[in-house]
Write a structure and sequence with these properties.
- The complex is a heterotrimer of chains A (340), B (309) and C (339).
- With 340 residues, chain A is mainly α.
- Chain A is 71% helix and 1% strand.
- In chain A, α2 packs across α8, α2 packs across α11 and α4 runs antiparallel to α10 (209-235).
- The radius of gyration of chain A is 20 Å and the shape is globular.
- By secondary structure, chain B is mostly helical.
- Chain B has one domain (5-16, 29-308): Orthogonal Bundle (ABC transporter involved in vitamin B12 uptake, BtuC), CATH 1.10.3470.
- Chain B has helices spanning 5-24, 31-56, 64-80, 85-109, 114-133, 151-175, 177-187, 189-194, 199-222, 236-246, 258-277, 285-308; strands at residues 138-139, 227-228.
- Chain C is an alpha/beta fold.
- Helices cover 45% and strands 20% of the residues of chain C.
- Chain C has ten helices and 14 strands.
- In chain C, α2 (52-68) packs across α10 (280-295), α3 packs parallel to α4 (107-119) and α7 crosses α8 (235-245).
- Chain C is elongated, with a radius of gyration of 23 Å.
- The chains are: A mainly alpha (340), B mainly alpha (309), C alpha/beta (339).
- The interface between A and B is large, with 59 and 58 residues.
Chain lengths: 340, 309, 339
Amino acid sequence: MSFRFQKTAVLRHETVLLLVLVLEVVFFQLAGRNFGTVDNVANIVRHSVEIGLLALVMMPVILTGGIDLSVGSLLGLCAVLFGKLWRDAGLPWELAALATLGLGALAGGFNAALITGLRLPPLIVTLGTYSLFRGLAEAITHGTDAFTRFPERFLFLGTGRIAGVPTQAWIFVAVGVAVWLLVHRTTFGRSWRAIGFSPEGARYAGLPVTRRLVLAYMLAGLMAALAAITYTARFGTAKADAGTGYELAAITAVVLGGTSIFGGVGSVHGTLLGVAAIAVLTNGLSRVPATMSNAAELSGLLTGALLIVALAGGALPGRIGARRRKEHPPAVGAPVSDPA
Amino acid sequence: MKRHFREFSVTGALLLLLVSLAIFAPNFFEPQPLLSRLTAAAPKLVVACGIALVILSRQIDISVGSLFAVCSLSAGLLAAAKLSLPVAVLASVGLGAVGGALNGALVAVLRLPSIVVTLATMVMWREGLRLAQQGVFVNLPDGVQWFGLPMAAGQGIVCGLALVVLLALAYALRFLAVGRFVYAVGSDAEAARLAGIRPRLVTFGVFILLGALTGLAAVMNLVQSPQVDPSTGRMLELEAIAAVVVGGVAVSGGRGNLWGVLAGFLLLACITPALTYLDVKPYWDKAIQGAVILLAVVADGVRRRKLNR
Amino acid sequence: MFRFLALTLGLGLAMLTGCNKSGPDSAAAPAGGSPAGKRLTVALMPKSKGNAYFVSCKQGAEQAAKDLGVELIFDGPVNPDPAKQNEIIENWITLGVDVIAAACENKDGISTALKKARDKGIKVVTYDSDANPDARDFFVNQATPEGIGNALMDEAARLCGNEGEFAIITASLTAQNMIEWQKFIEARRVAKYPGMKMVALRPCDDLKDKAQAEATTLLSAFPNLKLLMNICSPAVPGAAEAVKQAGKAGKVKVIGLGLPNENRRYVKDGTTDTVILWKTVDLGYLTVQSAVALARGELKPGATSFHGGKLGDFKIAGDNILLGEPFKFTKDNIDQFDF
């Protein structure tokens, strides 16, 4: 199985996903009410920025064969920290936002330190921090404190438009392009992929495995902080419950986008398509008269079905990747390398 | 001692917690609440044992919480329709097994990654249930709670069932060929195949077993009150997985045992009530829970690193 | 990669032309104040779906929608994510509904979205829990947070003889309206019942089983406990079952906010003393009635009374349509209700 074949297989998965997306759009345009309006498209984009940002950085993490369950909780913690810094420490919001980004990256670094330093499984480490980060957010605010009345300039980030496009969409596009370049056009991306294929191999090939992993998890922390800021700016309120369950939504989008949960295979544009397919589905279902009152439940149900169909489609004969042929797939979120 | 460091350390941590409770909050050991707490924890332990098997075979299942709710509700509706209790129990276990088989088929036959498959089935079971039941409680007829027996007997049965499941699985894992197959498949499926084991059959079987155990656990939970809450089982998967990994089962499969799972489970299950007894403010709950999980794995990581030097 | 880019571009173009085509359509279809002859669309939002309380509100709402011949949409978040409420409201704005009726999880957060809806000419009422006053036209008021807090605290004090320890079981520490209720419970306690002491607050994640476990622990950790106050509905039967199993029925009182069907058994056998709630079916009915009247221009700001269809007349205080005092379900009256 050559590298070339892998690449075309990935491309094919994305083409299929693109087709699904087109079908969704056509269907909802025909069956839904006011689906294709400018305002509604803006809604779809605005509402998918946080999950989208998290998915964009979850993708490199999964590419290395890892996983990060803590991003949703970290979003909550960062929202609270941002509010604390702005309201209680009296920092201007720009500075508070910068500091929050730093703290987010630091929290990601904490995950990375445990994962690389002690060679602990990412699944377990981030399961622990999933609880820890949310717990800290609750402890800081006692669960009850909410931060509101942010300055208009800040809220513009989440509710305004620049050139007709939601403000946070510009941020999303910038991050998307940056992550795409990072994954597909730099040696960082190649080393993440290599680590995902075989951490030991990557090590023997002389790649700085630890540093590359730290980068991936810190990026995830940084982006959780950025998502916390766009979330707060859109919602106007920061509270300890922000971002509950977002980690699963992000993982779903990444996997639907064709990234192998075992690492090594995947693309950023696939992830973006995954985000879009879910966002359009959720939005569209709330516009078809027959499903309007069950949109919330049905979108979950159909996303699950889509996920299984997309993966099963990929597992059909001829589409089985090299790694799937082996009887022994790597465990998800297992240690970077199992110590003997 | 060296081989079972993790099991010993978690047991040690549990004992430490219990001793400090005995000193600072002796009420913790009042028989009635203690027995109630054990009975309430028993179904979760059964699920955790099932999850341990799945993780030992190098897979994972995050759909158990949703499946648990589906089984509880189905059994509850059957019981409310005045069908006899054994029918409801069988239906719950059977439905659980079918749910497990669905996961197992997708994982073993189509060879899809278990975390993604069960992520999908988790959402699908939960949302399907929400569509069907909309959160309305099911009131059970008399004679369902505690299997129609006095409370003490019912509690005895529930705790006894959990103990039987635990011991049977522990015995099978250690002494029966099928149990060793689980370890073999989890450690190296290719080697297991060459040794004549059929890894995919083992994987399939483990998922079915977990499903059936989930159905059984649903019944064990159902009989503890006269109503079924359709939201039940939310976050059960995380509680069970946390207990299993804190108990020393490696997520990379093939390593760990049920003794550790029991210790990890009890440790985590004691923390939340312990905080109430020690009068710690509730907003520390999650942070402490997370810290304990991290401490358990970090301690192990640090020790392993020292050994490797 | 280039093929992919080309496809994406193609899709983008297709979507854009789609927008251009439907843009004018949507502008032509007025968002609010629909022309005569077109069926009104009422969008009703619960705090969360899969919640028995809101299911019974929905029953009443559906009845009202049928009586009035309007279209009813019922959607909300499936998990406690307050930002999700905003997303759904923003989607309803672009969908072009005529009137939105929302039960608000987070007052400040949702007000932004509701204001946006009003700017587009959509009428807004709130029910169950209010938004900021400038974000809606009317609040269908079944009870204010203050009214709920006072009712709970008064009842607790009455049952305990004005002194003793009590504990509260809540859904989660972050649930906004429960935070407000606790504030008023505490204020009432300080002002009127200094002999009462709140010894613990425990979250039960809105799960009955967890509430049962929390109550079991509370009963033993605080042996002098005289009363359990449950401010989320699954906690009431959970706590009652725990009290019963501990053999403390009657010794430790149980009160809370809940539905009659979930608590009937415990109220009748005396474990649960009082369940406080309102007629939720009526709340849903009145909400849709007033929403439609508002959209049709029959209900205007400044009105002092409102005719709520088959339910008769309701008083309006300011911009609050009053459903009436919270109702106390006790042993004597609980059998008259089925929801």
